[in-house]
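Final report, Chapter 2: Outcomes

The project's central promise was a pipeline that accepts a single protein chain and returns its three-dimensional structure in a standardized token representation, suitable for archiving and comparison. That pipeline is now operational. To close this chapter, we reproduce one record exactly as it appears in the project archive, with the input sequence first and the structure output second.
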Amino acid sequence: MSALRPVLALGVCAALAAATGVAGATTKAKPVCNLITDAKGDGGIATSSDDVDILSGDIASNAKTITAVLRLAGDPSAFNPQAPGGKNYYVSFTAPGSDQAQFLSAGFDQTGAATYETGYTQDVNGVGQSTPDADAVTGSVKGDVLTITAPLSAFSGRVNIKPGKKLTGLTADVFALIGAGGTGLLANADTATGTSYVAGAASCVKPG
């Protein structure tokens, strides 16, 4: 009889595990989405222009890359007569290692040609200044959705955005260069604020 006890014990354990769902059970984290949201038509200038109107945004990362997405009311690469000098789009955040806001950005000239960059914003004598860099940053526009991707190495030496680190102060901004002949004031067209993101967390945006 004693030889049968281990078999019986294993059978009971297997039955209990099946009944309770404990064995091998894993709970997948629900992907985060729309970490940044904004009302339609609330911009500071050119409020009738969908291309500078933020609707929502996200940021997502993995062990190698970080990606920002902005969903707009219109095509960001489209020419805007109210912004003849072009437009700049930013998704910003703060991360462990620095109080300076880090960003991924896209700039469009009058023809719709794009330049993608990363960088950080610092306060100089009370005035915010952006310091961009272009470390293998890529991007794309599909319809009304703008995507910007950069390697984590673009932020090395400034902040730590490895998986598990918390990114806070998520913000999206659109700036338009207004004025005759494309010269004049770089004005804020729309701003949206969001929540936080834990680097590497599941997202509706696929990094890379």
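Archive annotation: Helices lie at 5-20.
This record, like all others produced under the grant, will remain available to the consortium after the project formally closes.
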